[in-house]
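Why Histidinol-phosphate aminotransferase? Reviewers of the renewal asked for a concrete example.
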Amino acid sequence: MKTTFNINNLVRPNIAALKPYSSARDEFKDATSNQMIFLDANENPFENGVNRYPDPQQKDVKSMLSNIKNIPTENILLGNGSDEVLDLIFRAFCEPNQDNVITLPPTYGMYDVLANTNAIDVLTVELGADFQPKVDDILNTQNNNTKLLFLCSPNNPTANSFEASKIEKLLTDFKGIVVIDEAYIDFSEDESWISRLSDFPNLIVTQTLSKAYGMAGIRLGICYASTEIISILNKIKPPYNVNQLTQQKAIQRLENQQDVQNEIQNIISERSLLIKALKSITWIDTIYSTQANFVLVKVDNATNRYNQLVEKGIVVRNRTNQPLCENCLRFTVGTSDENEKLIAVLNNI
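Here is what the prediction returned.
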């Protein structure tokens, strides 16, 4: 456990001194009361279901997540997709044109985009040939201006989870904040790192309703961290960043945990069937181990095979330009019918 970590040493001075905006619903929180007349927020008074501003702290959604994940609501922040959550992390802790972050290619491309948007340098340490973090290289790459380390586990596009011992070593010895992106954790055999928040004050875990929960269209990202980190991020988030319709849809979905779990198990089962079928495709050289809802494969000519699939009405992801992914295609696990069509097309091109 890191005993000397102090979040105040990492937060940007202007953010630490910032007085957050106080919205009307922050100042009067009982916005659901039918006994009150609300004339404080300059809203249209004619009721249509969405004429009022949404709960700025998304209390009902957080309460449900708290029960499901066994995490206090004080350790949860919600965003307009995980990308907003990640952007808030950059803006809270990284000084433009001064600080840097570390990413581990091949990985999720938005880390670099958000860093560039915020004028933050990116130091890269490629994964090893086994797609695992090179811990010593990462620790040796950090410097006095390194604020964040991004670990995507299970990783996109490689689909594998990082070894727990490697992550724990990084959490212990990295001088900044370690952000573990768990967008695909529901498809993994590994336990989420949210269970270790109390052990590592420099840990941020991000999750999403876009993948396992099938809610990509509502854009809801989740951040789990210490109360100190959540408090800092709350200071700079937009006051009504998660709209009312998103909150309503999220609650409806979170109430149906059995449906979600059934879909996850279906995807995992279909993933196994897909991998078995892919083994018979002669032009697929390697099928990489997966803990996600997709499979990365190495083929003879990724661009050619990608174009052939498009001609047959199937769109996959060509990852050949990513480090360590030359001639690799990424197949998302679809429905049974979609997977059967994919396999049929693969066998005939």
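The mean pLDDT is 96. This is the kind of structural detail the renewal will allow us to pursue systematically.
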